[in-house]
Amino acid sequence: MSHSISRPLSRRAALGTAAAAVPAAVLAASGRAAAADEPRPVERIRAAAEVGRVRLTWEGEAYHPLVDHYALYASRSRDFTVGPDTLLTKTVYASFLHDRQGGHRQDWYYRIVTVDASGARSEPSALVEGHSAESVALSAKPIARVGKYDHRSLGFALAPAGYAQYKDRFPNGVDYTYGTSKPETDWSYIQPGPADGWAGNRESSTTFRFNLDTVPAETWLSIWLIDTHATLPGSLLISANGTAVPEVKLENGATRGSLEGDATVPGTLLKPSYVELALPRAAMRKGRNAVVIRKRTGSWHVFDALGVFAR
Amino acid sequence: MRSPLPARRSFLAATGAGAAAFALGTGHAAAKETVGGKVPADPFTLGVASGDPLPDGVVLWTRLAPRPLAPDGHGGMPRSPYTVDYEVAEDAGFARVVQRGQAVASPELGHSVHAEVNGLSPDREYFYRFRAGTELSPVGRTRTAPDPASGPAELRFVAASCAAWYHGHFTAFEHLAKEDPDLVVFLGDYIYEYGITGTNMWREGVPLPGPEHAVETTTLEQYRLRYSLFKSDANLQAAHAAAPWVFTTDDHDVQNNYADDWSETGIAPADFLRRRAVAYRALYENLPLRAASLPNGPAIDLYQRRRWGRLAQLDLLDNRQYRDKYPAGQVVDDSPERHDPRRSILGDRQEQWLYDGLRVSDTTWNLHVTGVVMAQIDRTPGAGSTFSNDMWDGFPANRDRLFSAWKRHGVANPVVLSGDIHRHVAADLKATWENPASATVGTELVCGSAASDGDGADTDSSAKVWLANPHVKLYNARRGYLRCRMTPTALTSEFMTVPYVSRPGAPLATAARFVTEAGRPGLNREV
């Protein structure tokens, strides 16, 4: 996974965002309620590239004056107008994950307006450029896949909400062989963790078997998830033919993916996340290979797709 | 029965009174002045309220919002300050006005007004109203607390909690408003942060609010809008206009299960504090709180001690802002970490403040107002034990320290008021939870929800677990409120219910009545 910090570009004029003045006498009488400051644009905006998304962070005064929210404006075009048509989101946080961009790299341009408790708006921040990272699922040569990399879990067994049947349908976990197994019957949309009472409060495992005609220079594993548990996402213990890779701590999700399976629905609460890593070359071999994913901590995660790719 | 509230009537144009108060809604004294232009028509759509009764005054509240559901959260008000006049009278007809003043409704505070009125007489009823331009507010009724040294014959209070507007009609508030109480104690979850959609909109006969209400509240404009939506309910407005309120908070005023700067959805602490700041700001703007509770960034001073003569001390506690997070990451468990003696639901400073206040208490009753259940509730009675770490059960060392303070200081008649669970529950507080024969050291009254969880029923699937704890004497899963009469000799508590809230007009019933005798902690059931 590559990360880059984009360079801030020159500040541009605010368009229709001039803040009306608050009478000085009122501000003087306001005590803690309102500082004499008008809201200021945020600074040090960073745009980190991740698969399927851009992670934006910035810095700015939060409390004096109290920030109601930051209005984020975004466009695929560098020369864009700050206005209702380019409003991406409003957030009170000093960060935003611009996600659901799919696996192909996308380039974006951002400006941020600070809106305070009185409704006053700062001028827009400096223009910042960012982009999402290209997924190996789209840029590398596929070897074996299950799922469509489409931010949906709907094609898998038990999807979208049959988690309660996992214990009976997959008592020993999932053991899936690419080429012979079927996604709709043999690959559970959900993999539980020991925090899940409905799955017996025990460790689970998912095995993905595939053949290699030759061992590529780089063998990449790409796992897209449509959601994880909000407080106990847990970690993935991944091994390739018995050789472990470093433990992958999952991101907190929204605890919705166990019940709904489409993260492309407008307004969905689902929080997709992505795990992409190179498998150890020494562990890969010609012929039959197996990747095992064990869940020994936390709660469940829900798959969008899993695949092995050559690069 | 006191006289009914009068209809809106002409405001006495006498704003030149010497008691003018003027400063961004806080009611602090300042020179007479008028700011703002023409006030938009019908600005009092969110009603009026009073709160925090002291022997010599109360805080009066309103918020100018001619279009309360304007999506930007500013209620349809221009981004300018406006002068609001208020007056307080001894009679419902405003023939005997005793206070007049001014406050400024500013855009920084969502055009809310918090006018702190002083110089009133103790233990008596007053009426109040506001004027903005030529617009007059509805009339509210309030009352002052008795003189601290006096011995009141009674305190008649009602308690309410958990008012999920979208889960049902506020029929409980409709009945509550007719109780003519001295005081309303609100126990948390005045709003809910969840998005309101067709899935959770169970209030029949009311259109689904617009898309700006369909997402979880995180920004100030969203929290403001959520308060506006809930406070647009006429029954809630009537309950506010009927009596002064005091408050504790719980989690949904900010986010489900939050603990200090910890969010269960993994929001980074620095970001979550920004959200907490706007949630607390909206809470202040929409409740009758004094300027002392005006938030400073992500901090709000909410815990406080009040007194009803020599009859009762009320310790209003803040059980969210300073609490430790889950001991081992789980809501329900019995982890060793749960028993860490350093764990606190109140935080060190509030704990010490509480014990210091209890040490010198000289009242007949000592009310502890807290958002979540204090009694130990074993969730897996029988083999093994588990407990909810979201309640006081997550902080057994803190609870033990409190009970020790009661014993050490000889605190008279501790009574705990709590909410959170949407169920009416009554429990004896035990010296040793596992031994039903051990001393009962206090009494807990858990007030069910006003609307949260919809219609409900007398019992439900959780009743068996709760009632398996032998100190639990009542479990009822209907909506309603708690009605109490406290005298120097007894506390009578009645758990009031309505059979449905999905549609309006439900009748009121008494699900249970208990008497707690002064000097003899615990519950004696009458009904």
TrEMBL record, chain A:
Residues making up the signal peptide according to the UniProt record: 1-35
InterPro entries membership: Galactose-bd-like_sf, Ig-like_fold, RG-lyase_III, TAT_signal
Pfam families: CBM-like
A biological-process GO annotation: carbohydrate metabolic process
Highest taxon listed in the record's lineage: Bacteria
Boundaries of every Rhamnogalacturonan lyase domain copy: 145-305
Alphabetical keyword list: Signal
Protein known as: Rhamnogalacturonan lyase domain-containing protein
Organism, as annotated: Actinomadura litoris
Automatic annotation (TrEMBL), chain B:
Domain PhoD-like phosphatase metallophosphatase as annotated: residue spans: 157-495
Keywords: Signal
Coiled coil: none
Signal peptide: 1-19
Gene3D superfamilies for this protein: PhoD-like phosphatase, Purple acid phosphatase-like, N-terminal
PROSITE patterns xrefs: TAT (PS51318)
Domain Phospholipase D N-terminal: 46-144
Family annotation (InterPro entries): Metallo-depent_PP-like, PhoD-like_MPP, PhoD-like_sf, PhoD_N, Phospholipid_Metab_Enz, TAT_signal
Protein's UniProt name: Alkaline phosphatase
Species of origin: Actinomadura litoris
